[in-house]
Amino acid sequence: MHTSSRRQFLGGTVAAATSAVLARSVFGAAETRTLRLGVIGVGWYGMVDTQAALKAGGVEIAALCDVDCDHLKQGADEVEKLQGKRPQTFKLYQDLLGLKGLDAVIIATPPHWHALQFIASLERGLDVYCEKPLAYDIREGEAMAKAAARHGRIVQIGFQRRQSKAFTEVKRFINSGEAGRIVQVDVQIHYTAGLKDPTPQMPPAALDWDLWCGPGPKIPYSPQVSHMNWRLEKTSGHGHLVDWGIHLIDACRKILDLPMPLAITAAGGIYALKDKITTPDTLTAHFEFDRLPIVWRHRIWGAEEYQPETNNGIFFFGEKATIFATDERWTVIPRGKSQQRKDFKAASDMGAAHMSEFLTTVRTRKQPTCTPDDAFRSTATVQLAMIAYETASTVRWNAATRQIPGNPRAASLLKREYRRPWIHPYGGP
């Protein structure tokens, strides 16, 4: 994933402005009015989402929030350049939510903050675009889905690959029967992790580290567990499968119309990056769904060089053909030796499309494609895999009761107690 160049972005804003003019001839004034947005968390991906909203058009970024005042200033400077008006800035998300005239918020903080910010936004009567994963723990996700249903606001969760034209075409191909029954799916994202200094040290003066850690444990600061690299930290991002692999697990569920898995096992460890990260650098997870198994693998060191064209993607093994799919291309390999492969390209600006869908649904009041309930299923699926890994056990999931029966240790990891004074939003144990 990467951010757009400034030239590409500004080109996109011109196209968006043209689209906005055309839209006024189709929609009423209420449906084309400028939407005022707040953004909570303006690091790397918070600004990607901000740019996507501006590219879609018809919005004003009215306010930004971050616990790092350097991020806040940089974000405000960039937004002012792009929209010609400086947004208000806040350190506390509660203060941003108190700003009058907001229509919606974008939440792009690390996942251990999502639940509180998400529910507070709904309680303020705001629509919400929240980055994936839905939550840090499974019980948070349940509380968020219930809150969304209770408040009836428009909510989109940031599973941008639901906008992949390649995955849409693969779903159509599989549904046509040309690949035959899909018997097994293998999923992988191998890459070389970019690491920072893991040595505990004083946090930068601009960063409120205690507030950054928030309801999670307060761990010693290092560049490796802070901005960007928190994804590989157990107490915040929970590792590569939960951070990046979740996109492809979600894609598998949508392409094959799968519910949640019945049982999950996982094995791996920290072999090459010991004392540098706190989540597996090597992991295999086996998800047993009702129709077929899905196997996830990742290696985040020394694994992307051999076959770079398949480092990031999904193999669907069918009775008649195997399909490999990634974000913007897919390949069909018929069964049998020396069969000719067929390659297809399907480029799409997934992030911009996903944000544009959200803004359209805010105007039309029709729920977007990635609801909190469905995002919960994909998020909980990968969280259960990490529970299986951490307990070295088979985790069986009862989707009806949302419990892990017969495995008390695994069940105890469905909810992480919050650090005081924060209170977990899930009322049960």
Description:
The chain is of the alpha/beta class. The protein folds into two domains: 6-162 and 351-372, 3-Layer(aba) Sandwich (Rossmann fold); 165-347 and 378-414, 2-Layer Sandwich (Dihydrodipicolinate Reductase, domain 2), CATH 3.30.360.10. The protein has 13 helices and 15 strands. The protein has helices spanning 6-24, 29-32, 44-56, 69-83, 93-97, 114-123, 138-151, 165-176, 209-213, 240-256, 350-364, 372-391, 408-411; strands at 35-40, 59-65, 88-90, 104-107, 127-131, 155-158, 182-189, 263-269, 282-288, 293-299, 312-318, 321-326, 329-334, 342-345, 395-396. The strands form two sheets. Strands 14-13-12-11-7-10-9-8-15 form a nine-stranded mixed β-sheet, covered by helices on one side. Helix 1 packs parallel to helix 3, helix 3 crosses helix 11 (350-364) and helix 10 crosses helix 12 (372-391). The radius of gyration is 21 Å and the shape is globular. The two termini are 38 Å apart.
Total count of helical runs of at least 4 residues:
13
Question: Averaged pLDDT, please?
Answer: 93
CATH architecture of the largest domain: 2-Layer Sandwich
**CATH homology-level superfamily of the largest domain:** Dihydrodipicolinate Reductase, domain 2
What is the name of the CATH topology of the largest domain?
Dihydrodipicolinate Reductase, domain 2
List low-confidence stretches.
Answer: 1-29
Amino-to-carboxy terminus distance: 38 Å
User: Per the principal axes of the C-alpha atoms, what is the gross shape?
Assistant: globular
CATH class of the largest domain: Alpha Beta
Percent range of helical residues? 25-40%
- Could you tell me the radius of gyration in angstroms? 21 Å
> What is the strand content?
15-25%
What does the largest sheet look like?
A: 9 strands, mixed
Number of domain modules: 2
